[in-house]
Amino acid sequence: MTLSLIAEHLKENMDTLSKIVDCPPEIKIKFVAMSRRKQLLSDDFLISMANSSWSILDLPGSEVTDVGITKVAELCISLRALDMSRCKSITADGVSKLVQQCKALKIIRFGGCSLSEAWTH
């Protein structure tokens, strides 16, 4: 099955994809990107795909919450850059746990979410 075919039928394949364990990390990150673009990215799917080799993660506009971001922080300690712009359900608590776990993290984008409003006032 090609990635473009999976993307076409992503919604009906989310459960199946989340059970894929032996998939290369570069394919898993593509599944995450596809699900984000189709506004299907959830905590459960992100956690099922998370890989310790990921260094960059783009989540802008997704429905990921503190639960998802905290688990990703535990699993992806090599993260160097994270874009969580417009993620309305990630709070300062989630970011705090992320920063504590991911010592290599250098870039966090969080514009357009409740965090950016809280830290600019």
From TrEMBL:
Top-rank taxon, per record? Eukaryota
Q: What is this protein called?
A: RNI-like superfamily protein
- Organism taxonomic ancestry: Eukaryota, Viridiplantae, Streptophyta, Embryophyta, Tracheophyta
